[in-house]
What does this fold into?
Amino acid sequence: MRKIFLAFLLVAFIYPSAFAQNKNLPNIVVLATGGTIAGTGASATGSSYTAGKVRIEEMIDAVPNIRELANLKGEQTTNVGSQDMSVEVWLILANRINELLAKDDVDGIVITHGTDTQEETAFFLNLTVKSEKPVVLVSAMRSSTALSADGPLNLYNGVAVAASPKAKGKGVLVVINDAILSAHSVKKMLTTPVHAFMSPEHGQLGTANFGLVEFFHEPHGLHTINSQFSVVGVKSLPRVDIIYGCADVSTDLIDLMVKAGAKGIVIAGVGDGNINKGTLAAAKKATKKGTHIVRASRIPVGAVLIHGEVVDTDYGTVASDELSPQKARIVLMLALQQNKNISREELQELMINY
Ligand code: SIN
It folds into this structure.
């Protein structure tokens, strides 16, 4: 944390407004966090590589004609595989983005990221960035040294979207494989192919095709300037854990998580957010004692209904509606940070509205 913060301070003070100015182009800051897009491997045709190796200026310089789209300034926020992304870095990113976008001479933000937790970072920022200016996450399924690396074109298209007035007010966006996807609806659906990202419920918002940006849908859910959440001055968020549902799932997990310090729990249940009788009984006990429990689903597509097989008011639980377990966890963490005494009903509203 100390290292990340010092690096951030160094960049912020040495380069207060260091755009190479072409007055006719928008000014975009690229915040780099690592991932496969910054990864390198020993062989262009091997599947093995290490994420988070290449630094941001090198990544930008590797993309032909990218500086014809915008004046670019890179900042290295961190350089990790996104399996190591953390709440700590989310808070640093959100506060830095808010600071940058408050400046008249910053028109948009691009964040380079690993694909594994990209949708979580996008959704967290969707709820905590307070600006209508474009914020775009880009990533890659193939490392920078791989044959047909997809990172350079994704970065090119991401900058084109961040530089486009059409992207204003659309919330945080993910640009990958020529698609523009909303933070609310984007999901990594496939483990390794370049078309891994989709919005199965609502579809993609638009396309970015060699820098040509088109939108044909609006995003779902409250976001950015209409979000009630703020992380100004926030240094950590309450712990929220996820239980993965399966046949005969161990029924002591809720108790163990609460004992370990969880202030809320999301169940990635089977089907419509269901879970076995023993876990439901534990959930009822925990919600009575004040721990919020959200029922989401391990099924990748579709909403969890309020009062399906589980009648939520009987157990004190909340249905995640359209939010995946990992996105419901973010709403629950932010909600508990804002109000640790939030009611079940208020939390249910948040799951539906965001
Ligand atoms: C990561 O998420 O950092 C690794 C996988 C990827 O970026 O595709």
